[in-house]
Write a structure and sequence with these properties.
single chain, Rossmann fold, Methane Monooxygenase Hydroxylase, Chain G, domain 1, 3 domains, 3-stranded parallel sheet, two-stranded antiparallel ribbon, 5 strands, GTPase activity, nucleotide-binding
Length: 401
Amino acid sequence: MMVSSVLVYNLMNNIQEDDLMNLQTFTSYGIQAQEDCDSSHAFQRLQFLVRDWGFPYETPYGHKGGQGVLDEILQITPKQHPAHQDVRRDLRKCFRDINCYLMPHPGFKVIQYANFDGRLADIEEEFLTHLRILVPQLLAPENLVKKEFGGQPIKARDLFNFFKTFMEVFKDIDLPEPTTLVEFAARASSQAALEAGKELYTEAMDTLVGGDRPFLKTVQMEAEHEKEKQRAVASYLEKNKYGRKNQRVVEKYQTQLEEEIDKLFVKFMEQNEAKNVFKAARTPATLFTALMIFYLLSGLFGVFGLYPIASICNMCMGVFLVMLTLWAYVRYSGEFRDVGIYIDEVATFLWENLLQPIYSTYMEKPLKDAAEQAAHQAMNSAINSGVKTAANNNVNKPHKS
């Protein structure tokens, strides 16, 4: 009942009072669950299946006869015990649909022959006729009922988590209390809502930077991450109906969702950074720049006769040449990846602590000023060209006499 959209309650001969009372644990859970999640029904469909129905002369086999028997059984009268009244009332509240089907006896060959192996020829034709009616009502694709939890359809992934959760509840001999069922339902609902929120975030970020999408600036990535993270959390809170009144469970799984999203963001950042052409070329460019700097310094110190310092510069130049060659080999062959990572770290250190400050101080501003000046000149040229064109049009326009 906890993990199924349709519960087939298989009974023999008739629906007895004890059969209804056996559902009391679940109806008690259903009532409390409805209060916790504000759902109209805790369960979806209950199908009473009465086999070996013995009164076809009073009530015919099939759905119509079964519904008549069910309505009579579930009718509440003043003479009934209060507990019997409650279970009938709760059944109506907990299940969205309640149906009943009366099945005939399958035939005496089925129960009398010890070697009965399921052959249709040994089963009464009337039983087979009603079986052909009942099975499509339950299993035909157009009649299948999607499993819902708290009014939300669940996926196969969520159903697996529900099985694991409720196995913890029913592993003991004694039936659990309704409050225990609600507690575990809140956990299962929170887990399902968490997975849905994480999936929403992943799909959004995949659309943004996944696959063949171009490189995105870090600032934009962080802004999109925060926006999609808030959307995922909002989706989690909206879909987590069973956990709404259990704040402790809600907050626990919300924290877990945020942590998992942050981990996913790190992976998306790495995926995005891999598309950064300039970052991919940073290591060879940095090593080559350092090599050229030491080459120039070596020549300069040699001119002034500072040969020991020039020799040190030559040695440093050789080190960077070896590093550049090794880096190219690692990238080409895929071998010695740890060496490649170490060379990348050295290049990053040189870039961030030496070359980037020099670039920012002496080159970035002049380049920016040059770009702005070029844009300004282009705009002025466009304006002047437009003015000249308008003037020529006025000169060439014929005058009316």
